[in-house]
Amino acid sequence: MADNDDDPAFDEFLDFQDNRWDKMKQEHIKTGYREGVSEGQTATLQSGFNEAYSNYSQLAFQMGKLRGVISGMLGFSLWKGSTQKLKEEDRSQLEALLEEIQTLESKISDDNTKISQSDSGWDERIKLLDTKLRKIIQNSNYVVDFEHQHQ
Predict the structure, then answer these.
(1) Distance between alpha carbon 52 and the CA centroid of its chain, in Å?
(2) CA atoms of 88 and 96, how far apart (whole Å)
(3) CA nearest 144: which of 99, 101, 90, 104?
């Protein structure tokens, strides 16, 4: 049997196999890297989306509640059978407050910065609007149950 160590064709075959192995190894490394980057991006994006959605939905709910109370008061006071009428001053204050809420909603939806729980600026603005609404209600003859929870 011939010794393959001295055979140039066998050496060429080994070089070809080594090159092929190196190429396959590099392809697998690149593929693994790409898949890892893709998985990392997906996980990060999903996590960021979940956090932003949770934070924004809380803000939207609070603003929706304020908007609903104000709109309800304005609409009910216009109803012919309503026993609760608003004074013109209260009506003007409620309409101004509704405009403030609409402005805040626009700012939040246009804001490209991250809405996070650590950013208490939005919460503070909503609390201020809530306080203003409660003062208007206290000064009017309206009865509003803020604490009622829909189930």
Answers:
(1) 3
(2) 12
(3) 90
CA 90 to chain centre: 34
Cα dihedral sign, 56-59-65-70:
negative
Strand (E) positions, 15-70? none
CA 15, CA 62: separation in Å to the nearest integer?
A: 70
Residue 27 phi/psi, 5° resolution? -60, -40
Q: Nearest Cα to 139, choosing from 78, 75, 72, 73?
A: 73
Which residue is associated with the tokens 């059978």?
81
Q: For residues 57 and 63, what is the distance between their CA atoms, to the nearest angstrom?
A: 10
Closest CA to 76 of 23, 140, 33: 140
Give tens-digit pLDDT for 38-82: 888 887 778 877 877 777 788 888 888 899 888 888 887 777 666
Q: Is the pTM of the predicted complex or chain greater than 0.70?
A: no
In the chain, the amino acid numbered 5 is D
Interhelix angle 8-78/120-139, rounded to 10 degrees, is 10
Question: Angle formed by the axes of helices 120-139 and 88-110, to 10°?
Answer: 170
